[in-house]
Amino acid sequence: MSNRTLLPVVALLVLCALLLVNSQYQARRLFIELERAQLRHRQLETEWDQLQYEQSTLAKHSRIDGIARSLGMAAPGPGRTQYLTAGGH
Predict the structure, then answer these.
(1) 74: closest CA among 83, 66, 86?
(2) What Å distances lie between residue 82 and 18, 31, 47, 77, CA to CA?
(3) What digits encode the pLDDT tens for the residues 64-89?
(4) Which single residue of 16, 47, 52, 73 could bond 68 by disulfide (Cβ 3.0 to 4.6 Å)?
(5) Among 2-11, 18-27, 44-53, where is mean pLDDT lowest?
């Protein structure tokens, strides 16, 4: 091969090598980003589960009833109950 045909081949080879290195770098960077996103997803799922458990604990009838009784509240008796009819009278 002459220098005239060898030079473009070498230039093309160097260009391909640089593109390969760049694509490997991008793949590693994206993989790290994916790992971080998956970790954040797991953390958010754990937090969501904890919040749902906390909400179910706070909404228990026995807890609400205990708080109401500690505040001096009681269920209304029949004398304090008013019933409304569909006609509004």
Answers:
(1) 66
(2) 83, 66, 44, 10
(3) 888 988 999 988 888 888 888 887 65
(4) 73
(5) 2-11
